[in-house]
Amino acid sequence: MVDITQTAPRAIAGTRRKLLPSWVTFAGKTLLSVCVTLLGLAALTFFIGRLLPIDPVVAILGDNSTQEAYDNMVRQLGLDKPLWYQFGVYIKGILSLDLGQALTTGKPVIDDIARVFPATLELASVAIVIGTGLGIPAGVLAAMYRNSWIDHTIRFIGLLGYSAPNFWLGLMGLVLFYAGLGWIGGPGRIDLIYEFDIQPVTGFYLLDTAMAGNWDVFRNVFSHIILPASILGFGALAYISRMTRSFMIEQLSQEYIVAARVKGLSWHRTVWGHAFRNIAVQVVTVVALSYAFLLEGAVLTETVFAWPGFGRYLTNALLAGDMNAVVGCTLLVGVIFVSLNLLCDLLYRICDPRTR
Q1: In this structure, is residue 21 part of a structural domain?
Q2: Domain containing residue 272: CATH number
Q3: N or C: which end of the chain has fewer CB within 10 A?
Q4: Cβ atoms within 10 Å of 69's Cβ, excluding its own
């Protein structure tokens, strides 16, 4: 006969021993997957940079350099070494946060990215707040009143957000709200007369001016950022509202919605209190991916508004054939997407017990 008093503690201890390795295994697999993905991304960006018909030596010295100067620069850049050796040096540089020198500025690429990325991060953050704050309620309302005039209006606005080019919206916005009505600031992050009034702490002008209590400069910064952020947020709104509507329609067709209505719950409480909670994790994923696309897809908007951010820096590097800067920026975009995907996976496991 089995003694339950002795078996139960052993079973509980065995269960605890199994739980710890499962989390350790998950963390190990996740870390390995991220490392392999980033290594593959680094290899892809490196070899694409080498295959492009752009000679970095000519980009540095110009077309009129002598053969001796050309050969010396080849040796200095390590381009006379085998390709596998160059890739090893490149990976070693990445691990030490050394992405090489930017040909356009003469400074380390990592320093240039650290200088321009906060401007793009601030612009994308304001845009995602606009897109999320309007897109989620719009998607829920479209699902609640499916096939009504509300649904058709929201879907039409979403179609405009998908179809209208950002550069055209930016130009029309500048003509109307800046040149015509004078409601907003012009191109750039701030007027020149206020540029030296900011004490950069975080690199986010809105946050820095608010912390310093300099509200005149804050209003000027806000007048410059609101139009480009609204244009970017309009595109995010279209995607977020469409996906939210799709998720919500699927939930509203479930039996538990009918049961909640039979029990006497109001329509709004049923939708927001029950249906929306079941799609919250999916919506978070959509918002996170939209944010990643805003960070790397603001090139045209930053060009139109002369916004001194990451997208404009990448565009100038491409036009100048600065492959060190191009490859470094491409690698950063990949890291952003991998990080946000990892964050979404973790949120799934935290918020949805069924995925654990």
Answers
A1: yes
A2: 1.10.3720.10
A3: N
A4: 14
Phi-psi domain of 100 (left: phi exceeds 0; alpha: psi -120 through 50; beta: other): left
Q: Which residues of 313-326 are buried (b: 16+ CB within 10 A; e: fewer)?
A: bbbebeebbbbbbb
Separation of first and last alpha carbons in the chain: 36
Q: Judge if 71 and 130 occupy the same domain.
A: no
**Is 22 inside a domain boundary?**
yes
Q: Which residues pair with 101 in a beta bridge?
A: 108
Question: Helices (DSSP H) in the chain: which residue ranges?
Answer: 4-51, 56-61, 67-77, 83-95, 109-144, 149-163, 166-173, 205-212, 215-252, 255-262, 267-270, 276-296, 299-304, 310-320, 323-351
Mean pLDDT of 235-244: 89
Residues 88-142 have pLDDT tens digits of 877 887 787 777 778 777 788 888 888 888 888 889 899 999 999 999 999 889 8
The verdict on 87 and 121 lying in the same domain is no
Rounded to the nearest angstrom, the gap between the alpha carbon of residue 71 and the centroid of all alpha carbons in its chain is: 41
pLDDT, position 129: 92
Contacts of 202 (CB under 8 A, 6+ apart): 118, 208
Q: Summarize pLDDT for 152-199 with one digit per residue, the tens.
A: 898 888 888 878 887 888 888 888 888 888 888 878 888 878 777 777
Q: Is the CA virtual torsion 161, 163, 168, 172 positive or negative?
A: negative
pTM, full prediction: 0.78
Instruction: Give phi and psi for 108, each to the nearest 5.
Output: -60, 140
Residue 60, domain extent: 4-95
